[in-house]
Design a protein that fits this description.
Length: 630
């Protein structure tokens, strides 16, 4: 994820295991079978396998299964074909990360072009969705490339469940009451995982009303993977109470690659939703929060978060069938009907369409961004309890009047191309993973004249009159509504890292400076050297915790949310040890404003952490500089 502001009105460029769920009747109890290879010859040891098959979710007449193949042999595989017989009367309807065919009970799954290689000891996961009538019984025997992977062990819980249980166990005995509370949903997540969502009393399949504001009256579910990251840091830091508080607030589950759906790095989507179901209290809807972030040619204007899918027609098909369809298949399980699921749609993508057509990677990706988002909105809006919020950058990107005026046409074309039209979205989100303050409390008038110049003329603002998110969201809301968007489409703001507390923060208006530049410098809370800086900002602090209706229901702003999990890196940069990354994350490098100006990236010196990975120092600094203090 990366947002980058290029200043100037038109140039802004800111920018898995097989689980065999033994099922007789609807209230299945997911027993799991892990089946290592039965080998009795040296030859077989070269080619050996274990397979796990799990029903990520199951409901009356349907299921989603994840299958992980592990190469337990000594030789690498360059391609694979998995064969097994379904245990019941399942019919496969669609699959991802493999080509799956069915003949009677016999299933054949073959690798796709990108996941045929499995090194010795490594694994790969694919998934599929299907229907069943009388039995969803689990398969019991598997073969990879003709080698049987049978004769294994049986365990009573699914692998995802045990993964999340072990991740969620709080390492900190000193965790506060709230921290231990936050550890509990994941514990129940794993409990509920084996119990299956359909065993839940909430799993009746009856959807409540699609409400105006999903957060109102709801309880925000905590991502157990993030809670685990935070608690590990709390423990390492001797039980730091302020740090522990961070883990008590909701952050989003980022589905930033196909494997994230099954949970290869964090909790998987189904396990996450099962956890939300288990955490729900009677009568209070549990609010889950996910980020849909894997478009073809993702992050076209930068190098920090480039995606796995190419900006090609085939890439668009991959996005639709291997990424969006599996997500929609899981979300549409009626067992989750009682949840409210907030989906943040594709950060940075349409803003890049608005301002970055001069960059060839963005021009190339544009049709795939547009078609991909229309597809995603259609699939997700078809699920009654999903709430779609389209990312709309932040004030330091689309805030220039000429950028703002060009915005509605792009968003309209994508949204009105959906089956439900405007109804396919519930609102917008600004400042996702960025650092722009919600308000600049001492700079409330961008045209205030100081020493002969308006404040917005200073280098930091470059004639962008939107100094903060409240100003930007209000103006953008009015612009979109004037262009035809419903007035019910209000804005969320990602306040996870836009607090700017700490000793550099001004505490009162200083009206003595006699030049606009000095006045702005003395009074702004945003401490970045350049407003277009976006990567691991030095001096930043956590912002206001998630809040519903912070300015009342007549404001354009509907709520504060923490989408970017504080303490996860924005990106790495090419260094002596690796070529991957974005120079705009290099503390020794620069950003440019499009007008010839060059500025420090403002990135924290001394570290080089890939996007999404835990970054202890950054977390500690964000906590220390939180505003309001934690
Ligand atoms: C990264 C993602 C990551 C997310 C949350 C984004 O900037 O690109 O890979 O999951 O942040 O940390």
């Amino acid at each position: 994820m990366h947002e980058e502001a290029r200043s100037g009105p038109t140039t802004a460029r800111f920018r898995r295991r097989v689980w065999v769920s033994v099922t007789g009747a609807l209230g299945m109890a997911a027993a799991s079978t892990l089946i290592p290879a039965m080998l009795d010859t040296a030859q077989a040891a070269a080619n050996a396998c274990s397979v796990s098959y799990t029903n990520a979710s199951e409901w009356a007449g349907g299921f989603v299964a994840n299958v992980t193949i592990t190469n337990t042999g000594t030789s690498a595989l360059s391609s694979w074909t998995l064969t097994f017989n379904e245990g019941g009367d399942q019919q496969v309807t669609n699959a991802w990360s493999a080509t799956v065919t069915q003949s009677g009970k016999a299933i054949t799954a073959t690798n796709l072009s990108y996941n045929g290689s499995i090194a010795s000891g490594a694994n790969t996961t694919f998934g599929f969705q299907g229907t069943w009538t009388s039995s969803d019984a689990i398969p019991t025997a598997f073969a990879v490339n003709g080698v049987a992977c049978n004769g294994g062990t049986t365990t009573s819980s699914s692998p995802s469940a045990s993964a999340s249980a072990s991740k969620s166990a709080s390492p900190s005995a000193s965790a506060s009451a709230s921290a231990s509370k936050s550890a509990s949903p994941s514990a129940s997540a794993s409990a509920s995982k084996s119990a299956s969502p359909s065993a839940s009393p909430s799993g009746t399949g009856s959807y409540g009303a699609h409400v105006a504001d999903p957060f109102t009256g709801g309880n925000r579910y905590l991502n157990p993977s993030y809670v685990s990251e935070v608690n590990a840091q709390v423990s390492a830091d001797g039980g730091n109470a302020a740090e522990a508080k961070v883990g008590t607030y909701q952050t989003a589950l980022w589905l930033d690659h196909i494997g994230a759906i099954a949970g290869d790095t964090n909790v998987g989507l189904a396990a996450y939703l099962n956890g939300a179901l288990a955490a729900a209290k009677s009568g209070t809807p549990e609010v889950a929060e996910i980020v849909v972030y894997d478009l073809p040619g993702r992050d076209c204007a930068a190098l920090a978060s480039n995606g796995e899918i190419p900006a090609t027609a085939a890439g668009l098909t991959e996005y639709e069938t291997q990424y969006i369809q599996p997500i929609a298949a899981i979300l549409s399980n009626p067992a989750y009907a009682s949840l409210r699921i907030v989906a943040i749609i594709e950060p940075d993508s349409l803003p890049n369409v608005v301002t970055n057509q001069s960059k060839s990677a963005c021009a190339t990706a544009t049709p795939y961004y547009e078609q991909g988002i229309t597809y995603a909105l259609n699939e997700l809006h078809a699920v009654p309890n999903v709430y779609n919020y389209l990312d709309i950058a932040h004030s330091a990107w689309l805030g220039w009047p000429s950028n703002m005026s060009g915005t509605p046409a792009v968003y309209k074309s994508v949204v009105t191309a959906t089956t439900a039209g405007y109804a396919s979205i519930d609102g917008f989100i600004s400042d996702t993973a960025n650092y722009t303050p919600t308000t600049e409390p001492f700079l409330t008038n961008p045209t205030l004249n100081v020493g002969g110049n308006p404040l917005d003329s200073v280098t930091f603002y470059q004639y962008n009159p939107t100094f903060d998110e409240q100003t930007y969201d209000t103006q953008m809301y009015n612009t979109l509504v004037s262009a035809g968007f419903p007035s019910s489409d209000r804005f969320l703001v990602d306040t996870s890292r836009n607090g700017w507390g700490g000793s550099s923060r001004p505490t009162a208006l200083n009206s003595s400076p006699t030049t606009a530049a000095a006045y702005v410098a003395a009074n702004k809370i945003d401490q970045r050297p350049f407003r277009g800086d976006w990567c691991n900002q030095n001096g930043a602090g956590i912002g206001t915790p998630p809040t519903d209706e912070p300015f009342g229901t007549s404001s354009a702003i509907e709520g504060f949310v923490w989408i970017k999990p504080p303490g996860e890196s924005d990106g790495d940069y090419p260094s002596g040890s690796h070529t991957h990354g974005d120079p705009h994350c290099d503390p020794a490098s620069t950003n440019t404003d499009g007008n010839g100006g060059t500025y420090s990236t403002g990135s924290i010196p001394g570290y080089d952490v890939p996007a999404g990975q835990w970054y202890a120092y950054e977390f500690q600094q964000l906590v220390a500089n939180a505003y309001p203090a934690l």
